Amino acid sequence: MKILVTVKEVATVEDEFEIDGTEIASQYLSADLNEWDDYAVEEAVQLQEAGIADEVVTVTIGPEDAEQTIRQALAKGADRAIRVWDDALEGVDLLDVGAKTDILQSVIEDEDPDLVLTGVQSGDDSWGATGVALANELDFEWAAVVNHLEHDLEDGVASVRRELEGGIEELTDVELPAVLTIQTGINEPRYASLRGIRQAQRKPLDVQSLGDLGVDESAVEGAVTLTDMYEPESESDVTVWEGGADETAGELADLLRDKGVVA
Amino acid sequence: MSDVLAITDHRQGELRDVSYEIVSAGRDLADQTGGDLHLAVINGDVDAFAADVNRDGVDAIHTVDEGEEFDHGVYAQATAQLYDELAPQYVLTPNSVNGLDYAPAVAADLDLPIVTDAVGLSADGDALTVTREMFGGKVETTTDLEGQAIVTIREAEWAVAEGDGDAPIEAFDADIDEGALGATITGFEEVGGGDVDISEADVLVSVGRGIEEEDNLPIIEELAEALDATVSSSRPIVDNGWLPKNRQVGQSGKVVTPDVYIAIGISGAVQHVAGMKGSDTIVAINTDPNAPIMDIADYAIHDDLFDVVPALTEEFQ
Ligand SMILES: Cc1cc2nc3c(=O)[nH]c(=O)nc-3n(C[C@H](O)[C@H](O)[C@H](O)COP(=O)(O)OP(=O)(O)OC[C@H]3O[C@@H](n4cnc5c(N)ncnc54)[C@H](O)[C@@H]3O)c2cc1C
After folding, report:
1. What is the pLDDT of residue A235?
2. Same domain for B210 and B174?
3. Looking at the domain assignment, is residue B146 inside a domain?
């Protein structure tokens, strides 16, 4: 069977940063593979190693720069990658759930996988909704926030655990084809080996435009626009201890003595 | 057409707190749109649940009696059908694990925009502004849309609605296509029993990803020992297998309320804060002065944990 994994390159922000309009100024940003997608890639690669999957394909919406991140996923064992980009996507502040779903849907329809794995959310805009929206559009079954997947997929059924709030897990059987949104902790993502990194350079990475996919440019407009970004107003009345580590540790020690934590 | 439809959440026979919060969020929004607040109670003991959420400000309650527990197919179909019937301007659902398991499908199905994890809502005419966070709480944003929409609301962000309401409760006859339900719940399991119960601890020394490596954990353990405290952690530490699941504080871990909670190298993501904000005194040790944990900390040290923690341990040895 074929597994498709959505892989996003996310921006990570330095401790101190400035906001420029509705964006964080680029000098404070670096790029990384989305944490949740890392676990999704690992799960797919493990299914391949278990002899369940024949092929693992990644799909990314992103500019050419994102290829370093895509190669990370290939280095970890994905077989090939698709990157979707288009002039129309340049300068779009926020790709909303509907826009992402439209684009990914047409890739997935072309590829016709048995299983689609996405991260639960992306670390930057944290929509947490694309996987389930996609499933609905594809007429696939789905499960959100999956932290365990049985690897036999017997009779075309994925037995999963969904991690609910408060340390409770739901056991669910999902018929394939399906979309599962993958939660961290489901596995232990590997580091790419040197050999993997070398091999990744030679793996196919196919670039597609919206036109290639038959997606109308208007799709990227989405229905939701980002209108403002600011540092949250802190309601905090935190007492900050200043000084060297010995001084600040001393202040904290005094507090702990006052509170009767230690004699 | 300016009503609000809000869907409640329950599990294993009990309404979840967010069900009362969504009444407040929905009432606020309906006041701004000048419409009515409709609630839906889907599955479970719908009559008891409906009576329970019948609080001040609710205009109508619709019950869908189609099974015991949450089933995303039933929720998605029932919500879409209620939408067709009631034609609300906005549909609100909790941004819970279950909310995220059906709300996006409803949005896709009805071709409506969806905005998730709202922490603020304001409506003006046909326009809706939703406040939400990005980059793990480092920034707040506003997002605008026009027309109808589905919004999932963050838990514990709105007040619990109080006061008895007298909204009419009506059974809604949803037409559920059983053939379209391709997912079957086979059970529930509680995780994270084991050696210690962190929710009983008076003092927690809690470690996050700032610790970098498993080999660095002993400095945390030594501090805990010196304080006669219990070690807990944020999620990545458990995900990495460095501590067992029963040590995880947060939305999907344990809720803790110690006298003192020392958060070491923990950013304070909303899912973590959900588990520890009830602590009596919160101390944060973090190099990032802007980390969201600072918003709820009582005391903070903006410094390297590898310097501060050993110095603190030494104070008590
Ligand atoms: C559905 C869902 C459920 C979740 N449930 C939970 C949950 O129950 N519990 C939970 O914790 N998370 C949960 N999460 C994950 C959560 O979103 C965060 O990813 C997680 O809490 C981050 O953990 P952290 O603060 O340790 O790591 P990070 O966010 O990476 O923060 C590390 C912090 O350490 C600081 N730091 C780094 N180096 C040092 C140093 N040398 N000295 C001092 N400080 C340093 C950094 O400034 C940073 O603030 C959940 C997520 C989802 C989507």
Report:
1. 76
2. no
3. yes
Locus of tokens 């009696």? B65
Q: Which pLDDT score is estimated for A93?
A: 86
Q: How many angstroms does the Cα of residue B237 sit away from the middle of ligand 1?
A: 9
Q: What is the C-alpha separation between B104 and B97, in angstroms, rounded? A: 12
Residue B143 has pLDDT above 90, yes or no: yes
What CATH number is attached to the domain comprising B230?
A: 3.40.50.1220
Domain that holds residue B167: 4-180
Atom of ligand 1 nearest to the CA of B267: 49
Indicate yes or no: CB of A126 within 8 angstroms of CB of B117.
yes
Q: How confident is the model at residue B1 (pLDDT cuts 50, 70, 90)?
A: low
Residues 6+ apart with CB under 8 A from B193: B246
Question: Could A234 and B295 be called an inter-chain contact, meaning their C-beta atoms sit closer than 8 Å?
Answer: yes
Q: Are residues B226 and B108 in the same domain?
A: no
| Same-domain pairing of B120 and B83 | yes
Distance from CA of A151 to the nearest CA of B (A): 17
Q: Alpha-carbon distance A89 to A26, whole Å?
A: 18
Q: Are residues B238 and B285 in the same domain?
A: yes
A35 CA from centroid of ligand 1 (Å): 12
Summarised one tens digit per residue, pLDDT across range A79-127 is 999 999 999 999 898 999 999 999 999 999 999 999 999 999 999 999 9
Helix (H, G, I), strand (E, B) or coil at A138: helix
User: What is the model's pLDDT at position A234?
Assistant: 78
Kindly state if the Cβ of B250 falls inside 6 Å of ligand 1.
yes
Provide the number of structural domains found in chain B: 2
Q: Is B80 inside a domain boundary?
A: yes
Residue B192 clears pLDDT 80, i.e. is over it = no
pLDDT in tens, A178-199: 999 999 999 999 999 999 999 9
Residue B193 counted as domain residue: no
- Ligand 1: does its nearest atom lie under 6 Å from the Cβ of B57? no
Architecture of the domain whose range is A2-221: 3-Layer(aba) Sandwich (3.40)
Average pLDDT, chain B: 96
Name residues of chain A where pLDDT drops below 50: none
Co-location of B211 and B176 in the same domain: no
| B73/B176 same-domain check | yes
Nearest CA to ligand 1 atom 7: B250
**pTM for the whole thing?**
0.97
Specify which residues B307 forms β-bridges with: none
Neighboring chain B residues of A126 at a CB cutoff of 8 Å = 116-117, 133-134, 136
For residue B130, list its beta bridge partners: B121, B143
Question: Helix axis angle, A97-111 relative to B99-110, nearest 10°?
Answer: 80
Question: Chain B closest CA to A20's CA: distance in Å?
Answer: 12
- Give the start-to-end residue ranges of the domains of chain A: 2-221
A4 touches A114 (CB < 8 A): no
DSSP state, residue B177: -
**Residue B288 in contact with ligand 1 by CB distance below 6 A:** yes
